[in-house]
Amino acid sequence: MEQSFVFKFLGLTFDLSGIIGSTLMAAVVLFVCIWLSRKVEMKPNKKQNIMEYLIDFTDGIVKDNVSDVDARKHLSLYAFVLFIYIWFMNQLGLFLEVKAGDNIFVKSPTADPVTTMSFAMMTLLLSFTFGMQKFGTGGYWRNYAEPVSFLFPINMIEEVTNFLTLSLRLYGNIYAGEVLLTLIGNSFAPSFGVITLVLAAPLAMIWQGFSVFIGSIQAYVFVTLSMVYVGKKVTKE
């Protein structure tokens, strides 16, 4: 059975495939951003147009979901980096998977719930920070008890469910896509020899294309919901 390669250090368990994949995609994102933003001109070239389109796209997500002007200024860069980073991580396992025996060393980092939960926790902590800056510590926590005090535990439970749905939605979609590709390549393709091998090739290509679309949608959904959660924290209902 295939599994991620893990190792323990100082009593902690580390997933090497997640570390390699996320580090590799961080380097790719850095390279792409530098490449697209080189030689910025008043009359944008094709590369600059792509960069500006991506920034405008993520800025639009922020503006549509965060009404507080001060928060928007700080969220613009976060939304851009979050979107492009998650997008690349979603696509990694579709085109590159490194295995050694039963151990997988490179796959989509977002096919691991620890990675998606880390992103969700970043958004959750960021929303707490902006909320406390906006209303003060006391005022922020009092918002959980409005309009009536008995709603406080219910609103706290909602925070947990927001965290879980935000992280597990992304994980579930990317993991399911990789599992299906593995089944097509490892089980269906060699099952009946040449016939299934020929049928599996276009099927795998179609599913890869569909998975690219799903990965893009999930990156968009994750960033949008992140901005929605932050926007709620800086808006008094």
TrEMBL record:
Localization recorded for this chain is:
Cell membrane; Membrane
The GO biological-process annotations, alphabetized, read as: proton motive force-driven plasma membrane ATP synthesis
PROSITE patterns, per the entry:
ATPASE_A
Question: What molecular function terms (GO) are annotated for this protein?
Answer: proton-transporting ATP synthase activity, rotational mechanism
Q: Name one GO cellular component term.
A: proton-transporting ATP synthase complex
SUPFAM superfamilies in the record, alphabetically?
Answer: F1F0 ATP synthase subunit A
Which regions span the lipid bilayer?
16-37, 75-94, 114-132, 179-200, 206-230
**What is the membrane topology here?**
Multi-pass membrane protein
- What UniProt keywords are attached to this protein's entry? ATP synthesis, Cell membrane, CF(0), Hydrogen ion transport, Ion transport, Membrane, Transmembrane, Transmembrane helix, Transport
- Identify the InterPro entries for this entry: ATP_syn_F0_a_bact/chloroplast (IPR045082), ATP_synth_F0_asu (IPR000568), ATP_synth_F0_asu_AS (IPR023011), F0_ATP_A_sf (IPR035908)
Q: Which domain of life is it from?
A: Bacteria
Keyword Nucleus listed? The answer is no
Tell me if Cell membrane is a UniProt keyword of this record. Answer: yes
Q: Which NCBIfam families match?
A: ATP_synt_6_or_A (TIGR01131), PRK05815.1-4 (NF004479)
Q: Which family does it belong to?
A: Belongs to the ATPase A chain family.
- Family annotation (PANTHER family): ATP SYNTHASE SUBUNIT A, CHLOROPLASTIC
What the protein does comes down to: Key component of the proton channel; it plays a direct role in the translocation of protons across the membrane.
Name of this chain's protein: ATP synthase subunit a
Organism name: Lactobacillus kullabergensis
The encoding gene: atpB
